[in-house]
Amino acid sequence: MTRKELAMRESSLTRRLLARLRQRGHYAIKIVGSPQQQRGLPDLVACVDGTFVGIEVKRPGRKATPGQARELERIGLAGGRAAVVTSLAELEELLTELEGAETPAAAEVADLAETPAPAETPRRVLRWAPPPWPLERWL
């Protein structure tokens, strides 16, 4: 790891990681914390080849807080991938691992492509009905 990477602020690293995820064609967003939000959510959330990924960004040598570690564990238990990333190289390792993996979602899509389409089902038409009270009350 270079000296420049060691001195990089977490916000700068987060921007670089987000840009790299998007550059490689993955859906990725930055989670911005607020008082109304659940504590411990990862900094970045992405979808890599059908796999939900939660990424907690930390400066080199730092660890996730207990709340962040708990949320990352919950993501893993739900079938997603979770990681604490401290450099661009670590993100590249994670992406290489995920991009080559056969995901259950990809297998299901392949199975669906081989099955014949079901017979056309009749469409249900929904019609709007006025409420039983006068609309003027609410305008």
General description of the model:
The chain is an alpha+beta fold. It is 40% helix and 15% strand. It contains five helices and four strands, in the order H-H-E-E-E-H-E-H-H. It has helices at residues 3-7, 10-23, 66-77, 88-100, 104-114; strands at residues 27-30, 44-48, 51-57, 81-85. It has a four-stranded mixed beta sheet with strand order 1-2-3-4, sandwiched between helices. A hairpin with a 2-residue loop joins strand 2 (44-48) and strand 3.
* Residue windows where pLDDT falls under 50 for at least 5 positions: none
Radius of gyration: 22 Å
Apparent shape: extended
- What is the count of β-strands? 4
Q: Helix coverage percent of residues?
A: 25-40%
Main sheet makeup: 4 strands, mixed
How much of the polypeptide forms β-strand, as a percent range?
15-25%
The helix count comes to 5
The strand order across the widest sheet is 1-2-3-4
Order of helices and strands: HHEEEHEHH
Distance between the termini: 63 Å
Mean pLDDT: 82
Structural class assignment: alpha+beta
Secondary structure topology:
Elements: H1 3-7, H2 10-23, E1 27-30, E2 44-48, E3 51-57, H3 66-77, E4 81-85, H4 88-100, H5 104-114
List keywords for this structure.
139 residues
What's this, in brief?
The chain is α+β, with helices and mostly antiparallel strands and 139 residues long. The protein has helices at residues 3-7, 10-23, 66-77, 88-100, 104-114; strands spanning 27-30, 44-48, 51-57, 81-85.
